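Database export, one record per block. Field names are fixed; values are copied verbatim from the stored entry.
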Amino acid sequence: MQTESLLTRTKKLLASYDLHARKGLGQHFLVDGGILKKITAAAELSHADTVVEVGPGLGVLTQELAEQAGKVIAIELDEKLSGILEENFKNSGKVTVINEDVLKVKPSELPMKKTGYKVVANLPYYITSAVIRHFLESENKPALMVLMVQKEVAKQITARPGEMSLLSVSVQIYGKPKMVDKIPARSFYPPPKVDSAILRIETYPEPKITKKDAAGFFDIVRAGFSANRKQLANSLANGLKIQKSDIIPLLQEIKIDPARRAETLTIDEWLLLCKAFNRKMSC
């Protein structure tokens, strides 16, 4: 079976290079060929595409991407894995390997066109949110992101009003997320303790907030979620160090009940709230 052969191949590669999965880097190697196909299908690749792959590991997904895309930029933090990737893809003509921490690499400085690239990655759980923000908040945003992330994180990111969080607002202000499929832990070697999911984020041509307003907008959102499940007026007052008596009329003016909770607000309501602060105070 393909899953077994990919698992066997992964184990042989690790043994031949005297490697093991580094727990500190959150390394879990994908060993399910069916999942590989689902990832590339979600990315809707063509030979016109440039793909940035984060954490390519042994290059199993990299190979699939190189066969379907025009160019692959693989960013790998592990120096030994980076060297193996360079050796294995030296004759490809399509794959560029960068040995660096992705969070220190500006997307605008990558060797590619300035628009239209895609990000595909099997992200270590501990840097998932940071990597997503890194690309979505950059000046050179991807057109699409297809990511393997922890299932619970995918649920948070794709949440609807009633279950929203700071993370879901932070992503949905820049693009439309969708959980494509769930991935059982057994699809990785070594298997993680939790299941994963394929997350697709289709970025908007322009974010719902301007770069100028972004800092103030997220100050308000963070304040709103600062006190778990408290009424919005209380959370905003405490988080922003403003009198509740100043917050309530502002919320009423934009027809948001002060007794509501932050998780119930829509993206549009957060935007209205930021505009109200701009007018009355300072957003």
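Remark 1: The first helix runs from residue 2 to 16.
Remark 2: The mean pLDDT is 90.
End of record.
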